[in-house]
Automatic annotation (TrEMBL):
The keyword DNA-binding belongs to this UniProt entry's keyword annotation: yes
Domain HTH lysR-type: 1-58
Classification via PROSITE patterns: HTH_LYSR
Keywords, alphabetical: DNA-binding, Transcription, Transcription regulation
Pfam families reported for this sequence: HTH_1, LysR_substrate
Protein name, per record: LysR family transcriptional regulator
Recorded superkingdom: Bacteria
GO molecular function, one term: DNA-binding transcription factor activity
Family to which this protein belongs: Belongs to the LysR transcriptional regulatory family.
Amino acid sequence: MEIQALRYFYAVAKTENMTRAAAQLHVSQSTISRQLKALEADLGQKLFTRHSFSIELTEQGRLLKEQAADLLLMADKIEHEFRTWDEVTGGDLYLGLAESYQIRWLASWISQFKQQYPKLHYHVTSGDRGQVYERLDRGVLDFGVVCEQPNPDKYAALPLPETDTWGAVMRTDSPLAKQKAIRAEDLAGLPLFASEEAWEHDLPRWAQEKMGSLQLEGSFRLAYNGAIFVREGLGIMLTFDRLVDTSPGSGLTFVPLTPKLEEHLYFTWRKDANFSPIAERFYKFVLEKANEPR
């Protein structure tokens, strides 16, 4: 299986249109068609169902689309690392980040680092801890930020300087919006939003035996999307503070949970990672910043 054929496949899979994919890639439709047929022959599976004016992914095609994104990212990462190996003013960093207000620390470190290495390019993906760990393990990412203490046998980690506070985001006209804190029993039977990961791993530590009385209405990986549903009166979202706008006039209110539930975030990397030169420099830079007095 050739990387170029995989690039053609991924472009067509995203657009589900051969003409648009050909325009994006600046090649002819016949070139793409030929590459896709060769790819299907190599894999021994049909990847598309072709219609008059569009194409549709088969089950095998949908699976390959999911895997192709990381495969192509890895190929690009390898190419960029070797191309910029001797580049003393830059290079490429690959980071996977949890959603948190504390990401501001990482943004600040990158901003300062870029002053020393102006040709730095960084590639950021968002994901839950499972996704970040998986991509670290596969070598797709250099570093990650996760909402838990990583396994010390496998990962090295630095805690970010602050903690995130859990709470409930609701409409300002909600009866619960006037409370100083939210207990699990306050939410019993109400439609709730949270990430699947938080619902399974984090919130049970807070609700404990009352977890069974809580009702997950829908799950969101991005708090911004959940906030839109909250504004429509569809439910209450359990999330970190300062992820969505709850300022006066926003129509939303954040109320912390009680007992208090906090989360530490960790900047992490694989202990056995073989860093590129720019990733090695960034790793040492972050260590210095983390040890500075505040």
